[in-house]
Write a structure and sequence with these properties.
heterodimer, A: about 120 residues, B: about 1000 residues, FAD/NAD(P)-binding domain, 7-stranded mixed beta sheet, 6-stranded mixed beta sheet, 54 strands
Amino acid sequence: MFHIYCPYCEEYREEEEFHPKGQAHLSRPEDPDDCSDEAWGDYLFFRDNPRGIHHEMWVHAQGCRKFFNITRHTVTYEILETYKMGEQPTITAETNTARPAATASSADDRAATEVKGAQGVQA
Amino acid sequence: MSQSTKQPNRLAAGGSVDRTRTLKFTFNGQAYTGHPGDTLASALLANGVDLVNRSFKYSRPRGIVAAGAEEPNAVMQLGASEATQVPNVRATQQALYDGLVAYSTNGWPDVQKDLMSWIGKLGAPFMPPGFYYKTFMAPASMWMTYEKYIRKTAGLGRSPSEPDPDIYDHMNRHCDVLVIGGGPAGLAAALSAARSGARVIVADEQEAMGGSLLDSRDRLDDQPAHAWVTTALEELAARDNVTLLTRTTANGYHDHNFVTLHERRTEHLADSAPTIEGRRQPRSRLHRVRAGQVVLATGTHERPLVYGNNDLPGNLLAGAVSTYIRRYGVIPGRKLVLTTSNDHAYRAALDWHEAGHEVVAIADAREAPEGELVEQARKHGIRVIAGSAIIEATGSKRVSGARVARIDRDGFKVVGPVETLDCDTIASSGGYSPVIHLASHTGARPTWNEEVLGFVPHTVKGVTTTGGARGVYPLADVLADGAEAGAVAATAMGFEVATEARHVPQATVVTEGAACALYQVPHEKPTLRAPKQFVDLQNDVTAAAIELATREGFESIEHVKRYTAMGFGTDQGKLGNINGMAIAARCLGKSIPEVGTTVFRPNYTPVTFGAVVGRHCRELFDPERYTAMHQWHVEHGAEFEDVGQWKRPWYYPRRVNGRLESMHEAVVRECRAVREHVGILDASTLGKIDIQGPGAREFLGRVYTNKWAKLAPGRVRYGLMCKDDGMVMDDGTTSCLGENHFLMTTTTGGAAAVLEWLEMWHQTEWPELDVYFTSVTDHWATMTVTGPEARKLLAEITDIDLDRESFKFMDWREGRVADVPARVFRISFTGELAFEINVQANYAMHVWKTLFEHGDKYGLTPYGTETMHVLRAEKGFIIAGQDTDGSVTPEDLGMHWAIGYDKPFPWIGKRALSRSDTRRTDRKQLVGLKPRNPEVVLQEGAQIVFDPQQTIPMTMVGHVTSSYYSPTLESGFALAVVKGGHQRMGETVYLPMVDGTIHEAEIVGTQFVDPEGARQNV
């Protein structure tokens, strides 16, 4: 269960108080009537499904009822930042390429001898 | 008869059991005794019970193997009564109490004479992996029949068929450092963290904290190790910032350091939780811990070696042998042979020898074993056979011998003559696997560490792994590592950890020789023909099964797992996984890290549903919402319907001639009352949203499909709401209360979602609109007075002018009703003259009762949701969510009149209505259906076809969305969606039913009663 920092309440609260609302930063075309069917279909139905950094919109439904965005790593589930509606993320897939997908950074890798190919299958 | 003869395997001294007190228990109906301090497993071993279960697939006899959570065989059914049955309890984790009743989970008719065991005796060729699927595959339709009987012969316990008398708790907790595991690493971590002032929780799954120190031969500060455990626990218990939880298993590590701890609070005391001072104690408690930092000190599981008949009772883990002797004063046999790949396991032989029993030999797979423990064994005159291993156990229901031979580990073959040693117990050790289950729950893949011959966890943020769990084994190192881990965790939480806070006791240093890698022991015969060599005892997976799986092309370890069931179920691969991966690797010619590991999932050990559910059951399962008039409905015999969380009156059956009306009779009566006289409905559950601000009107125009620019104060309008894909999501009326003030109503079930929807569009797309939304559903109670006599009735108790010319249909007025402030809306969901009276909820019961005081002479009749449905459907009024399903546009509903295509702002859903798909003429469209036979009430959900002669599969062209009997029409009628339905008026459609009958119906308009709308306008 996620522990989410609400940028409006300025507190960490349990996931139970929030609703996920899907991909963030989707903008409704300014003039829908000027959109091709394909462009409108893209806006309606097509969403990113990245392995790694993802920006999502959530709402503090059982709290302040404010919508906001989070930057979350879809492999580690780490929430890297939350920010208010209208703001831009400071962490993006482009700025974060150095980060390995399978592990969050950790200095605590003391005895582990890394062996290549140790990755199993996600099931 | 003395106790010792009753418990033939109980040692005269040693261990922490209280021999002065005796506890009685039964196992498979047989009475036994044990002592306080025993587990069910240690008591069974003390009584010489070899056979505790039958295996899952082959029904082979099985005995106790381990002493902890990793026990695969002694999985018990507990419970003295039907209501207190608990399946899947490991005997090694169940403290003994007086009166405990346990049964084996497998074995029919009983565990001694198992009818299925012939299958096990016939051997692997008859039950290869996939046996059931391959054998019982044809015909496919029979699988369900086969499965019923197959399940009966297997299975791991059963659930009780009577309600559980116990209660269960949930508790939310927060801490700076959560230490999981109370062994040497965990206690050291807890001490260093606690001394810094951090709030610490220590959870340990055993009856007492201390882990391996409880049965250790090592000394700490020149004291027995358990003495230091006592000191450490005293220090921790004295601190306010420390919570110690014993009998508490960390079963799941979830996101962001959320850990579920399952504390068994009374399961060690009695069959059902005791009552203290009149209060029943919770049987168990689920701690939901949000930890700042987690220290995983989960230790190791010893790996058994894989050799022939290694599942016979009498085969134990070496460490378990030590635990039973040293902790419980129980010796599980007379003559021991140890087979090992490492020094550490020598402790079992030394403990056995010191207990006064014979150690026949130690078969050590290493060519030149050397180390302090090896020397001690030799000094005691124990025969050490180097370069060898037990290749096979002999015996039928208990080990009677061990076949030992020289082996070539690299060549995987037996290279010397086989010597058969006479013994009744075999202890084996193939090394130690770090317990990485919780670390794996994070999704982080473990990595193979060749030095410790095990997978070690890949640490993630906020987690520190320490001690055996990360492959640190010597006790002195474990203590130091634990203290460091606690300090790291506390420091990460902002606490200062002084040097002296990291103080740990001085451990005796025992030099150990290097272990060798040995998993499956070679046999003279090839694996497929050798006696069964078990890898996963609980799921009956053999080395041969894994070899066969790789031969059949299953190369991924995840596929091998699913094909053979290795590591499945409640066992989660605790003993078998590494051996299984090693065997798969050997068969595939790969290394273990290349083969990789499978995923471990929560829960680590089985958790009862009671603990998962906690207090969220029965009346506390989900909140129930009552309207202000609820008590009246109850007193007047209403049957209730759940709508969302609301309890709504469904219908009000009356007693007629001493008999209670059926729903049909009540609904017919209620419908007639509304159409002929006057009825009243409690409509308080409708969602109500107060919308205010200069941007309110513009906002409404954007979220509704129809026009709002000119709605004047005092007027009401029906509104239809779409998503941006053009599909109807909700509907309701919105009233203009003032130029910048509106009251929106929503469907009962859609209220919360609609409010969130409005907020989302306002906050994310149109923050420039100055508008505010407030839910006022609970503030206002709503009663609908409807029927030809409605005006006369209401006029008696209101100061509002109800004249039909000044208070028109779709107007609302403010005034007083029954002497309280009210808003009265002239809107109709029945097609009759109707007034919806809104008053503050606190006044509602008064107003409702006043209406009845005046209503008797008009035949005022309360009606429920069922009658409401019939009346609205007769008028063709839709219910969003019943007649729509997220694939229906306003045009599909025939509601063109509610679409403002020429509104200036591109409102939500508009653009989608001109997509090619929404313009199709053969979309499913809402129509009315009139059954040819008026007595037929069509089934809601029934599929519609145009051609009843078509062979199956028929072309389905729509379905019934609402269907009722109409007392007004004296006929069944329905609403339905039919492809191109609007152009098919008068055509006949067919509804084939499951029983073979085919109903005929005519497509008609959706308004069955008063299509001109004259009755609501009087």
